[in-house]
Amino acid sequence: MKQKNHLSFVFLLFILFSLNSNSLAQRLPEEQLRFHRDYTENGLLFGTITFPDDKMRFDNYTFPIVYISPDKKLQRKYTKNLRIDPTMFVGKHYGELDGGRTYLFVLEKVPGLYNLSSAKFTIFKLFDYAPQYKHVSTVTSNFEVNKGEIIYIGNININEYANKGERVINFEDKFERDKKAMKDLYKMVNWDLAKNMKIELNTNMFENISNH
Fold it and tell me: Which residues contact 139 (CB under 8 A, 6 or more apart)?
């Protein structure tokens, strides 16, 4: 029994470290970001994710930025997960704004239609390698990424303490604040060219928690 618990714990740590390294690479580039509309085939999207408190409820937050295409291979290729992995053993968010409650993100994407169609929040149980998940479905309408453009998709507010029947995700317009934060972080990008997108938000609530 002890050996099984030890193996489960080691497996959990492996998952956590893997997710964390992926998250850092996907959410914010570690190197200086360079983007010029005349020398790229892609577009750039950015925004922020805000939590109500610096104390986290879940161990991992995943937001698939879904590429809309009838070609399933292309959809899989260009759909990327935006991941946030707070410091699990500390139990606090570590974002760049609002005392850690708000995370910046910027992603370079191939031109096309995208949406944020779901979100998944994960709880890792210490001595069980089968995590628990909570899902939120149908979050936004489609938005378009164009070649050479920088688009702002909003400040995504996550009510991770929502009760049954309450809305989990809301969008706010923090364009000027978030653009300034990006200017301070990535000085080689002309953020003044950024466009403020108006994304429609659909009804969203927590689905039942599940094991996988």
Answer: 115, 116, 117, 118, 119, 169, 201, 202, 204
